Amino acid sequence: MSAKRPQDRPEPVQVIKQRRDAALAALVGRVPYAQFLGVRFDRRGDELTAILPFDDRLIGNPMLPALHGGVIAGFLEIAAVVELGWSMLWDEVESGALDPADDRMPRLPKTIDFTIDYLRSGLPRDGYARARITRSGRRYASVQAEAWQDNRDRPFAQATGHFLMPRRPGDGDGDG
Amino acid sequence: MPPNDTPEPSKPSRRRSREEVIRMTRQFMEALPHAKALGLEVRSLGEGRAEFLLPYSAELVGDPDTGVLHGGAVSSLLDSTCGAAVICHPENTGGTATLDLRIDYMRAATPGQAVIARAECYHVTRSVAFVRAEALDDDTERPVAAATGAFTFAAAS
């Protein structure tokens, strides 16, 4: 409806990419356990894919060999929490209101419960995961996550979890 | 506490003595690469029961502002402990795999403290073991997390 003014021009793609990547790096970089597992994130627009590069230290059963069930749980939980944190920050990253370089990155959501279905054993290969927020409220959120390896159609684990969202300035109902 | 004698490698057989099962489970658990990476310690093993300890480590923190361990590290502890409890069950004839695991995070583990998990098989069928576990830090009155899971099971026929 409004006429385009010069300052409404879309930002150059490199500027916005750099800001998104910096925000994502700041979000993931704050979790030492994600570094312990070696989890990285790939981003296409707002879509995130968590990547778990294979490492011998992730093996739970050396006979098969198979990834440790706890590694798979941790990987899916990281994918779910980062997806939630990312969706929480997205608007501020887009508007430029959030500067990932400064120290006021909001807190991450807290896991209330997490349920993992182990569909197949995790092979000694890289793993991938995507999470989908199925319900996002001011206080509570529900997230589903799925992990696969060589074949996208053959997930090796899926999970569902509930999360407590951090209180943020402007929440309205106070201090918490 | 740690086994100092190097036991002779023995082939797994259908009939294993209780002591042998416990000894083999301990050996197996302590050799797992990820259990080593986490520094997991086998505290005790019994019939369908296990108790493991996860030492506190800055590498395993989820939120550096608080120093609280990440849920994933606690998941690994609980999954390992539950699996060991299944392997140690007197009617089990083989290994086990996790079918599903639900973890309730009741409170943050206190930074700097080790977390201990206790697991027990509360029911087994011919092919499934139902296991529950809790994770505790120094304040043993208030569990950090609770888990319930189903594991594959191969009962002696």
From TrEMBL, chain A:
Residues 66-163 form the Acyl-CoA thioesterase-like N-terminal HotDog domain. It holds the Pfam family 4HBT_3. It comes from the Bacteria. InterPro entries: HotDog_dom_sf, TesB_ACOT8-like_N. Transmembrane segments: none annotated. This is Acyl-CoA thioesterase-like N-terminal HotDog domain-containing protein. It comes from Pseudooceanicola batsensis (strain ATCC BAA-863 / DSM 15984 / KCTC 12145 / HTCC2597) (Oceanicola batsensis). The lineage of its organism: Bacteria, Pseudomonadati, Pseudomonadota, Alphaproteobacteria, Rhodobacterales.
UniProtKB/TrEMBL annotation, chain B:
One of its GO terms (molecular function) is 1,4-dihydroxy-2-naphthoyl-CoA thioesterase activity. The keyword Hydrolase applies. Keywords: Hydrolase. Residues 67-141 form the Thioesterase domain. This is Thioesterase family protein. It comes from the Bacteria. One of its GO terms (cellular component) is cytosol. It comes from Pseudooceanicola batsensis (strain ATCC BAA-863 / DSM 15984 / KCTC 12145 / HTCC2597) (Oceanicola batsensis). InterPro entries: HotDog_dom_sf, PAAI_dom, Thioestr_dom. The keyword Ion transport does not apply.
